[in-house]
Design goal:
- By secondary structure, this protein is α+β, with helices and mostly antiparallel strands.
- The chain has three domains: about 70 residues, no CATH class; about 130 residues, Beta Barrel (Butyryl-CoA Dehydrogenase, subunit A, domain 2), CATH 2.40.110; about 120 residues, no CATH class.
- The protein is built from 14 helices and eight strands.
- The strands form two sheets. Strands 1-4-5-8 form a four-stranded mixed beta sheet. Strands 2-3-7-6 form a four-stranded antiparallel beta sheet, with no helix packed on it.
- β6 and β7 form a beta hairpin.
- It is globular.
- The termini are far apart.
């Protein structure tokens, strides 16, 4: 592809350039797919990517400003999700030019949705213990095994697959990262319903599924290195609060969701209402501050203390992201910041869960799982905000588990950041097929 001219190259503020571009290109009568194609090919869908990877090479702070400007303009934002946030930067880092052209174009234009085929029933937090096999057969790989907690699996066109390609190597050294076509015989997807009422995850079964060798990202048996790139982007996104749970977006990428053919002007108001709901918030804890005022509990010392804690925790998360951005811009890094940030966000979710439930009282025991029920409960104490808080409370248990549990994050920080010794009996150098197995 031809590299995109960046704002930095001509000394123009990217937001000013974007505003001019939106004036010339935004058309509410386009389809969602047509609009995303314009946005993506101009480099505005994921502008943090390099210019030769359908991005603009912008710093993270400018990327946030770009997203905010698109929202303020009233246009539909980028085709968010796992493809844009995880697959794209991973392939940009480890892929060949042909893979970047072939896969990233469909990601930034929203033509294909992605899922993450990492965790297994016996390999969740110990991801390197995965047992799904990929066996070479000419120019293809034959895949057999099972994945679980697959984010977006039931609406995905393609999947980021980790499979074991050398069972005789130690567990971290015999894994390869592939791009797998989800729409093929031999791939069975079974959606999982959460206690939130949503279906964000699935379990996936492979029976002689096929992956061409041209869809292998990175070197053979070096998938753990590639996977760590994916996980770093995942944990950074979680630490910043960007979980992109289904139901939060106005339109979804890919062929399964059915949004690409919709008139883009018809889906923008749904995202617009969310922006209006955020308007006027001056604190990360504003939602809880408003509720405390409405039910007359804002003067209680214990409640005030917990509101201040929510504000401080949210502000610290934002400042940590800004500090990391500044360090990276100067060519440095903060070891373990993604792990620290994910731990902090998990703590914030639990804190806000408890605070919200205390403010709601008995109303917190009620939650609706369908539009009719939500409309009915919106007429009760707390209104729409109460429904948002009960939804947050039900979902607060997830982040401390998925993407690597809190305990795993602490292990990583201890061993890789603080240099603490690993636990005795380290099995990392034992060939995978000689590791002890349960049962």
């Amino acid at each position: 592809m031809t590299a995109i001219a960046t704002s930095a190259a001509v000394g123009v503020d990217p937001v000013d350039e974007l505003r001019d571009w939106l004036e010339e290109n935004w058309d509410p009568d386009l389809t969602v797919g047509e609009w995303w194609e314009r946005l993506g090919l101009a480099g505005w869908a994921n502008p943090i990517l390099p210019p030769d990877c359908f991005g603009r090479g912008l710093a993270r702070g400018d990327v946030v400003r770009v997203a905010g400007e698109i929202a303020r303009f009233g246009a539909l934002g980028a085709p968010a999700g796992i493809g844009l946030n995880l697959a794209a930067p991973t392939i940009a880092t480890h892929g060949t030019p042909e893979q970047i052209d072939g896969f990233l174009r469909d990601i930034v234009t929203g033509q294909r949705a992605w899922c993450q085929l990492f965790s297994e029933p016996g390999a969740g937090s110990d991801l390197a213990g995965l047992s799904t096999r990929a066996v070479k057969d000419g120019d293809e790989w034959i895949v057999n095994g099972q994945k679980v907690w697959t984010s977006g699996g039931h609406r995905a066109d393609l999947g980021m697959l980790l499979a074991r390609t050398n069972p005789e190597a130690p567990k971290h050294q015999g894994i390869t990262w592939f791009v797998l076509d989800m729409h093929q015989p031999g791939v069975e997807v079974r959606p999982l319903k959460e206690m939130t009422g949503q279906t964000a995850f699935s379990e996936v079964f492979f029976t002689d599924a096929v992956v061409p060798d041209t869809s292998r990202i990175g070197d053979l048996n070096n998938g753990w290195t590639v996977a760590n790139t994916t996980l770093a982007f995942e944990r950074s996104g979680m630490g910043a609060g960007g979980q992109n749970r289904r139901g939060m977006l106005a339109a979804w990428p890919g062929t399964v969701a059915g949004d690409l053919g919709k008139r883009v002007g018809d889906v923008v108001p749904r995202s617009g209402r969310a922006r209006v709901a955020q308007a006027g918030r001056t604190s990360p804890a504003q939602q809880f501050i408003n509720l405390a005022r409405e039910n007359g509990r804002h003067a209680e010392p214990a409640i005030r203390q917990r509101l201040v804690q929510a504000h401080i925790l949210g502000t610290l998360t934002r400042l940590t992201a800004e500090r990391h951005k500044a360090v990276r811009a100067a060519g440095g890094d903060i070891p373990g910041v993604a792990n620290f940030s994910k731990l902090a966000m998990a703590h914030i979710l639990r804190h806000n869960r408890d605070l919200g439930m205390e403010l709601l009282g008995a109303r917190g025991m009620l939650h609706a799982y369908d539009p009719a029920g939500r409309a009915q409960l919106a007429e009760e104490v707390g209104g729409v905000a109460a429904g948002e808080i009960t939804a947050q409370a039900l979902g607060a248990q997830a982040l401390p588990i998925f993407g690597g549990t809190d305990q795993i994050q602490r292990n990583i920080i201890g061993e890789r950041v603080l240099g603490l010794p690993k636990e005795p009996g380290d099995l990392a150098q034992v060939p995978f097929n000689q590791l002890p197995k349960n049962g």
